[in-house]
Amino acid sequence: MTILGKLIRRKLSLFGLLVICGTVLAALLAPWITPYAPDYQPFEGLTIEGAPLPPNAQFWLGTDLLGRDLFSRLVYGAQTSLVIGVVANGVSVIIGSLVGIVAGFLRGAIGAILMRFTDLMMAFPALLLAIVLSAIFKPSLWIVALVIAMVNWVQVARIMYSETVSLSERDFVEAERSIGASRTRILLRHIAPHLLSSIIVFGTLGISTTVLLEATLSYLGVGVQPPTPSWGNIVFENQTWFATAPWLVFFPGMAILTLALAFNLVGDALREILDPTMKGRH
Amino acid sequence: MPAYLFRRILEAALILLGVSLVTYILLFLLPADPVRQIAGRSATAETVESIRRQLGLDLPFYEQYWRYLTSLLQGDLGRSYIQRSEVAELIAARLPASLLLMVAAICAELAMGLTMGIVSAVRRNSSTDQSLMVLSFVGVSAPQFVVGILLLYVFAYQLGWFPISGYGTFGHLVLPAMTLGFMGAGWYSRMMRSSMLNVLGQDFIRTARAKGLGKARILLRHTVPNALLPIIAMIGIDIGIFMSGIVVVESVFGWPGIGQLAWQAIQRVDIPIIMGVTLVAACAIVIGNLLADIVALFVDPRIKLK
Questions:
Q1: A162 contacts in chain B (CB < 8 Å)
Q2: Which chain A residue shows the shortest CA-CA distance from B264?
Q3: The complex's ipTM?
Q4: Residue B179: which of B102, B262, B78 has the closest Cα?
Q5: Distance from B26 to chain A by nearest Cα, in Å?
Q6: Do the beta carbons of residue A245 and residue A45 sit within 8 Å?
Q7: What is the DSSP letter of A186?
Q8: Cα separation, B188 vs B195, whole angstroms
Q9: Do A127 and B26 touch (CB under 8 A)?
């Protein structure tokens, strides 16, 4: 409760929280708050010449190349972004933490093998690896989430590894060891609780990376496939018209930016709140 | 130090070997059968079999990998299924354009990021500082394709200051370099700010102040150079981040580099090209990280050679 209170008291993280809550609500209530179905092509959605309509009273954010209501598609696109953001990032935090903590706690041969594998995966450019993976597995919503998780876990693993190593060299762990505490007890009761704050911080910051990666993959045409709306594939479908219909890039672009920014702001605030050594700095 | 360098280079070589193994396994997993693609739909079973034998695809996995590895070491990245030409040649022809773009992007991100970081640190906790730090968050949260398209819309279409797409003059370079450097500028401004604050809190700065040196002199001669040290090493790591970024930026701006090559290959599912670019990019990342470590060693001799 105090953490939430501190988040609300800071202007920037309050903004982030409001954006996140707003997006979650919009995604949950999508069928009730959107004026049109996301794939409905109303007759009046295009001009006589077949061009998309700019924002107006009937279509609040304008229409896309097929005459579909952009606002409705953006609201449904929020579902895609959030599902992928939460699932993909959740999976990558779980894999990354497991690998990092096990490697950092056990060290030795197992630790070395795990961390060399992590180094190896870090040598691949994230976007290209994700592209190759989604070419192997035909992209669907869940496959895209898994592909992103398979690319993103390495950062978490690196951080968790170095934190676990430095924790297990601290005096209080040494003291536990000397009074004969078992390894499981040390890991679960003494090391894991200290790692929790990092997991929360990087779990939040990672959602922002995930949202951006999903948008980029979908923009390149290898992420979430149309007709399922995603903020990235809305830009992908409409980019050829950006000079005459800039709203088709501007609104989805701002949606991605705002959501990624919100998770970054909240994550950064959490880092400052949860890290006692940050007090007094800044 | 030579021992340390030797070990780092050996490590880098081992990682590259691992990279080649992983790319080969990925190739192996791909559902597309290269033999079918080469032979065409009307080929008889015998033709398919003979092509398969010619390509060595009937050999066991480790033998195929060994062939792949030896040809890689000779600079052979295989042939594109669709463009019917050597992948290595396609990449080599496009590499200079990508390198030019990356160098320009490094200049752009350093110019934007370092200035923001220095101003923030000097005006610590002021409203300027706060707005610059919000701006840096916007930088790291903005998807590159959106930044690119919006810059195109404003500066090329509406204002007409820069050409819309293409390659050749300095004007063509400005918008892609800004787009590619935008995210890095956000990171650098935050790192530069905290590095500056770190230096400003040290004793030698207090001594300089006590000697009565001017503010500008303390800033430019004592603070900024010391604050830059930990940051210079980061440039090597940027290469890796750019390797993903160029796919997006080059496709938005029609920049004829390896990113655009990869993007076109994605659209046509031309796997050898995607694999080739991935391998080249992975090499660049490994070399970039190696350079970062070596530079860090030179700028800060206190780094422990663990």
A1: none
A2: A220
A3: 0.86
A4: B102
A5: 8
A6: no
A7: I
A8: 10
A9: no
Cβ-Cβ contacts under 8 Å for A27 (sequence gap 6 or more)? A75, A78, A79, A82
Structure tokens at A110: 């197992």
The model's pTM: 0.88
Q: Show the tokens assigned to B169.
A: 């003059």
CA of residue B159 relative to chain centroid, distance: 30
**Lookup: tokens for B131:** 């707005």
B11: nearest CA partner in chain A: A116
Alpha-helix residue ranges (DSSP H) falling in chain B = 2-29, 34-39, 45-55, 61-73, 87-122, 127-141, 144-151, 170-200, 203-210, 215-217, 224-232, 234-253, 258-267, 271-299
Kindly report the nearest CA distance between residue A126 and chain B, in angstroms: 7
In one-letter notation, the amino acid at residue B302 is R
Burial (CB count within 10 angstroms: exposed 0-12, middle 13-18, buried 19+), residue B89: middle
Q: Tell me the C-alpha distance between B183 and A205, whole Å.
A: 15
Report whether A248 contacts A62 (CB < 8 A): yes
Average pLDDT, rounded, for chain A: 87
Q: Give the model confidence (pLDDT) of A14-42 as tens digits.
A: 999 999 999 999 999 988 988 888 888 88
Using CA coordinates, name the residue in chain B closest to A221.
Answer: B267
Closest Cα partner for A233 from A245, A242, A241, A225? Answer: A225
Q: What pLDDT digit, counting tens, does each position of B146-173 carry? A: 999 999 889 988 888 888 777 778 888 8
- CB-CB neighbors (< 8 A) of A261 in chain B: 137-138, 141
Is A125 in Cβ contact with B285 (below 8 Å)? yes
CB contact under 8 A, B143 and A219: yes
**Higher-scoring residue by pLDDT: B24, B141:** B141
B244 touches A: beta carbon within 8 Å: yes
Indicate yes or no: CB of B141 within 8 angstroms of CB of A220: no
Q: Which long-range contacts (CB under 8 A, 24 or more apart) does A33-38 make?
A: A33/A75, A34/A69, A34/A71, A34/A72, A34/A75, A34/A76, A35/A60, A35/A69, A35/A71, A35/A72, A36/A68, A36/A69, A36/A72, A37/A72, A38/A68, A38/A72, A38/A73, A38/A75, A38/A76, A38/A227, A38/A229
Contacts of A271 (CB under 8 A, 6+ apart): A201, A205, A278
Residue A28 token pair = 């949950």
Distances (CA, A) of B145 to A169, A250, A282, B246: 44, 11, 33, 10
Answer for the pair A38, A78: CB distance below 8 angstroms, yes or no: no
Report the residue count for chain B. Answer: 306
Instruction: Answer whether B152 touches A (CB < 8 Å).
Output: yes
* A231-266 per-position pLDDT tens digit: 998 998 888 888 888 888 999 999 999 999 999 999
Cα→Cα distances A86→A210, B105, B237, Å: 8, 32, 27
Please judge whether B138 and A261 are an interchain contact, meaning their C-beta atoms are less than 8 angstroms apart: yes
Q: Is B69 on the interface with A (CB under 8 A)?
A: no
Tokens of A64: 């896309």
Do A248 and A64 meet the contact criterion of CB atoms below 8 Å apart?
yes
Two tokens, residue A223: 């992420």
- The arithmetic mean of pLDDT across residues B104-112, rounded, is 93
> How many CA atoms, within 13 angstroms, populate the side-chain half-sphere of residue A138?
2
Tokens of A145: 């989430």
Q: Among partner residues A12, A131, A243, which is closest to B157 by beta-carbon distance? A: A243
